[in-house]
């Protein structure tokens, strides 16, 4: 980031005030697009390391905060290895979070089970108000693994 700001300050010295605003905006826009492209490419490179196939859900499951059980996002796809979550707020990268996954059974109503997951990447969704985050499951116990397998078999295509 230091190199980026140095380029801007050196470049700004050679411009008049009116030209400076226009050219700086163009430069910043170009640099941010390049940064986003590199970020997207690095996120896509991590997907190539997956062992398990991702399964898209028929409907999005709720991802709940572990302690409050408030919905903080929706699970777009899931595997025993990880999941992709859409949320209104970005998650910090490389942090381990405790969540509960909520799903419904016809005669039992809403069911939840706890998981821990580490965020691997976070990108702005194609809809500007949302963020997509890739999580890797951490310390997945046998009970949670069974629940995820059940979800894959009954709620995914």
Folded structure, characterized:
This protein is α+β, with helices and mostly antiparallel strands. It has two domains: 2-46; 52-155, Beta Barrel (Thrombin, subunit H), CATH 2.40.10.220. The chain is built from three helices and six strands. It has helices at residues 2-13, 17-47, 142-155, and strands at 55-65, 71-78, 82-87, 96-105, 109-124, 131-138. Strand 4 and strand 5 form a beta hairpin. The longest helix has 31 residues, at 17-47.
Features:
single chain, 157 residues, alpha+beta, six-stranded antiparallel beta barrel, 3 helices, globular, disordered N terminus
Short description:
The protein has helices at residues 2-13, 17-47, 142-155, and strands spanning 55-65, 71-78, 82-87, 96-105, 109-124, 131-138. With 157 residues, the chain is an alpha+beta fold.
